[in-house]
Design brief:
The chain is an alpha/beta fold. The protein has helices at 14-24, 37-48, 60-70, 87-95, 114-120, 140-147, 200-211, 218-234, 247-257, 267-270, 284-294, 297-314, 340-349, 366-369, 380-386, 400-410; strands at 4-5, 53-57, 78-82, 99-103, 125-131, 152-156, 164-165, 168-169, 176-180, 193-197, 241-242, 245-246, 330-334, 352-353, 389-393. The strands form 5 sheets. The protein has a 7-stranded mixed beta sheet, sandwiched between helices. A two-stranded parallel sheet has the order 1-14. A two-stranded antiparallel ribbon has the order 7-8. Helix 1 (14-24) runs antiparallel to helix 8 and helix 12 (297-314) packs parallel to helix 16 (400-410). It is globular. The mean pLDDT is 96. Bound molecules: pyridoxal-5'-phosphate (PLP). Pyridoxal-5'-phosphate (PLP) binds at residues 59-61, 85-86, 88-89, 131, 156, 158, 180, 182, 193, 264. Residues 59-61, 85-86, 88-89, 131, 156, 158, 180, 182, 193, 264 line the site of pyridoxal-5'-phosphate.
């Protein structure tokens, strides 16, 4: 059986690899092409989201940064954020000089706690970033009631692209949203992000800033194109060998050492510093990969619902409704902290590498938390969940059969 890695290019299929290889050999098309791929990708995503203004760039962190700037957020302002998330999406608040304020989560939904939100809103609150964790929609109408009409609601649709909440596309309910096409997300262009914003003037401001932003470098573009190709070589041989001495592990080790696998979070970001090349424009080749994946969005999300249902039946407490209109980017399990590493090991013995979003507050080492404006105890539920969370894969790289094998291996272990 082919191994399943939750984070290593989980959305990549044969057509994506073929496209990446083709594009790798067309360096003259990397930055811009005559088909205007970046504009076409923006149009595609915009049309899917009821015609909302869409602006593409290198990542969601850049998208949030430029959006905050365009809204005029700065010193003296407060931005409410989930702490059960990743530091890269908190950093932009610090980059514009505003204060991040972290809201706790509900232990069952992993989404923001409305009770805690009531305590965190002040007259300095200008923006709230709302994450639909693992795809489950936040009740945005209740958030609006609490924050009032003047606070901008920005949806973080990293986990929830393609979902629908009460008849409305997720990403079109708030004032704006930020999307990522990072490697482990709903669809992947390896790197990439977009702002979706209702206010045309804000979209234009962002476009102007981007027009003078650096290009995504040739080296980074090459590394991004190589990523799905390399994983397609490493994955089938990852467990071929003796014990831990396997061909795939050796290949992966060398590729990482050579720096050709790319890095998602730069060292300076752990110190809340902005990498000098961010924000950057989206290269047209990554828009091409993104468009190819976007065409498969609904199929991928249907698949995720089916796989999540398999886990729920025997393992989970996270409810799965197959008639629901949202996705399940990953299936979350909560286990006693002392059992967690055993469960990873059992999964690994069966050739599954599970996920750990978000095993630390803001997915950050303790040494970064103070810089991020987070004090231990600020969000106790999120801290409790962080100690217990394990994520099971639901992407297209796991078949129903594999999900059943994983379920069987983990049953009785929780
Ligand atoms: C919930 C969430 N939002 C946003 C991001 C940022 O996406 P990007 O890597 O495109 O900046 C991440 C990254 O891991 C994330 O986990």
């Amino acid at each position: 059986m082919r191994p399943v890695f939750i984070g290593a290019s989980p959305n990549t299929e044969k057509d994506d690899i073929k496209l990446a290889i083709k594009l790798l050999f067309q360096p003259w098309n990397w930055r811009g092409d005559k088909e205007n791929s970046v504009n076409r990708f923006e149009k595609m995503v915009s049309e899917y989201h009821d015609g909302i203004n869409a602006v593409a760039m290198d990542s969601a962190r850049s998208a949030f940064y430029l959006l905050l700037k365009a809204y005029g957020i700065g010193p003296g302002d407060e931005v409410i954020l989930p702490s059960f998330s990743c530091l890269v999406i908190a950093n932009p608040v610090i980059w514009v000089g505003a204060k991040p304020v972290y809201v706790d989560i509900d232990k069952e939904t992993f989404n923001l706690s409305l009770e805690d939100l009531k305590k965190k809103v002040t007259n300095k609150t200008k923006v709230i970033l709302v994450q639909h964790t693992f795809g489950l929609p936040v009740e945005l109408e209740k958030v609006r009631e609490i924050v009032g009409k003047d606070v901008k609601i920005v949806e973080d649709i990293a986990h929830s692209l393609g979902g629908i909440y009460k008849g409305q596309k997720i990403g079109t309910i708030g004032d704006a949203s930020v999307a990522t096409f990072g490697i482990e997300k709903v669809i992947s262009s390896v790197r990439g992000g977009m702002v979706l914003v209702k206010d045309y003037k804000i979209a234009e401001k962002i476009r102007k800033e981007l027009a003078i932003a650096p290009h995504f470098s040739f080296v980074r573009t090459k590394i991004a194109l190589l990523n799905p190709i390399l994983w397609s070589i490493i994955t089938p041989v990852y467990y071929v060998g003796v014990g831990k001495a396997t061909i795939g592990r050796a290949f992966s080790f060398v590729a990482h050492k050579l720096g050709i696998m790319g890095i998602m979070i730069e060292k300076c970001e752990y110190d809340t510093q902005k990498p000098s090349w961010i924000p950057a424009r989206m290269p047209s080749v990554l828009a091409r990969l993104g468009m190819n994946q976007f065409g498969k969005l609904d199929r991928y999300n249907n698949h995720r619902r089916e796989i999540a249902k398999i886990y729920e039946q025997k393992l989970g407490t996270f409810k799965v409704d197959q008639n629901s209109t949202h996705n399940y980017l990953r299936y979350p399990l909560l286990v006693e902290p002392e059992k967690r590493s055993r469960i990873y090991n059992i999964a690994s013995k069966n050739h599954f590498v599970l996920g750990n979003w978000y095993k630390n507050i803001l997915y950050a080492p303790d040494s970064s938390l103070e810089k991020l404006g987070y004090k231990k105890g600020d969000t106790p539920n999120a801290e409790w969940v962080a100690e217990r969370i394990i994520n099971l894969p639901t992407a297209v790289n796991i078949s129903r059969k594999s999900a059943e094998i994983l379920t069987e291996a983990l049953e009785n272990q929780k």
